[in-house]
Amino acid sequence: MASIQDLDTPLVEEDKFPPEGTTPDRVIVLFGGTGVGKSTVGNVLAGRPNLFAESSDTKSETKGINSKLVYVRHRGEQRYVLKIIDSMGLGDTESGDHDISTLYQLARLVTGCKGGIHQILFITESRFTDVQRECFELMQRVIFTEDVLRFTCVVRTFSEHFEESSQEVKVRDDLREQSDMMKKINRFILVNCPPTTREKTRELHEEDRRLSRVKLLDHIILGCKEIFNPGDLKDANARVGAYVQSESKLQREVDEAKQEIEKLKKEIAEKQQSADCSIAALTTEMSDLRADLASKMDMRSEEREEASAQLAAALVESQQLQIFVNEEQARSEEEIKRLQAEADQATEKMIQEMKAVEDEMAEKIQREVADSRQKFEKAYRSMGLWKRLLGRLPRVD
C-alpha cells in the first residue's frame, strides 16, 4: 500500500449527501470530553469543513448530538457511505446538568443503529485528564458495555509528528502508563486537525488535515469490518439511570459533609472571637493597672513594694490566661483536623462503595447477556431438532 504522502486524496469531498434511509457501510461514533476536537475530526473524516460546528478554543460548539450520512472515497477507489455520530462533549462546564440528558440521548441514538456500530473514535489531546478518564468510564460502563473496547480506537489530535509510526507507539505507551484503562485498547492513531476557524493557520495545516483524513479512512475502511451491537435501549437507559442515581446520592452526601464542616468552622470562629474579646478586656485592665501603679511610684517604700507585688501577680494571671487561650486554640485546631479527616474518610468510603456498585452492575449485565445467549442457543437447537423430525414423517398427498 502506498504511503499517505503519495496519495492523491482530496481534503474535500465533492459528492452530494446520500438520500435519507441509505444503509451506511460504516457507522462511526465520536466520543470524548469537551473541546478535544471531536467535531473537527468528524469534518476531516467526512471531507466537509462545515458538517459539524467547530471551535477555535476549548469551548464546545456542539449542542446536543448530531448524526450525518456522507459519501467518502477511500484512496480514490470505491465510494462508501459513512454515518458519523458527533456527541456533545461530557464535562462541559457550561452544560451542567445537561450531561444527564446527553447520556440518555446518546443511549437512544446508538441503540437505534439497527446495523450496529463499526467503531468508536475516542478523541483525546496530549494527556489523559480526569475529565477524559471519566468520559472513558461512561462510555464503557454506562453507554455501552466493556465489549465495546474491542471496537474502540483512541485518536490523539494536534500531534505534530503524526506521520511517524514510532510516535504512535510512544503515545500508546504514554497513555497506557497514565491510565490502566488504556491497556484494554489495541489501536491508537495520531492526527493533526487544527480547526478551520483559525484563518491564519488554515492553509498552513491543510496538508496535515488531508493526510490525517487518509489515516482515519484507512483504519475505518480496512480495519473496521466487524460490527458491535450496542444492545437495546431499555438496558442502556437502565445503566444510565443507575449511574445518575448513584452520582446524585454521592453528591448529596458530599454536600452534607461540606455543610457540617462549615458549621464547625463557624462555631470555632465564634469561640475564637470570644477569646479575642477576653484578651482585649484583660489587656485594657492591665493597662489601667499599670497606670494606677505608676501614679503610686512616689509612695513610701513599703507601699511601693506592695504595689510591685500586685503588678507581678497581675502579670502571672495574664500569662496563665494567655496559656489557657493558646491551649483552647490548639484543641480547636485539632478538632478541625479530626473532623476533616472523618469527612475525607467518609468521602473515600462512599467512592469505594460507588465503585463496588458499578462493578457489581457490570458483572450482572454480563451474566444477563450470557444467560440470554444460552437461551437463544438452546431455542435454536430445539428448532433444528423439530425440523429434522418433521422431515422424517411420511408425506400425505
Rg: 35 Å
Q: Which class of secondary structure composition applies to the elements?
A: alpha/beta
Indicate the low-confidence ranges by residue numbers: 92-98
Walk across the major sheet and give the strand order. 2-3-1-4-5-6
Structural write-up:
The protein is an alpha/beta fold and 397 residues long. It folds into two domains: 4-231, 3-Layer(aba) Sandwich (Rossmann fold); 253-370. The protein is 57% helix and 10% strand. Strands 2-3-1-4-5-6 form a six-stranded mixed beta sheet. Helix 1 packs across helix 6 (206-223) and helix 7 (233-295) runs antiparallel to helix 8. The protein starts with 25 loop residues before the first strand and ends in a 5-residue tail after the last helix. Residues 92-98 have low confidence and may be disordered.
What is shown here, in short?
With 397 residues, the chain is of the alpha/beta class.
Strand and helix map with partners:
Layout: E1 26-32, H1 38-46, E2 66-73, E3 79-86, H2 98-111, E4 119-124, H3 130-143, E5 152-156, H4 165-178, E6 187-190, H5 199-202, H6 206-223, H7 233-295, H8 301-392
Helix pairs in contact: 1-6, 2-7, 7-8
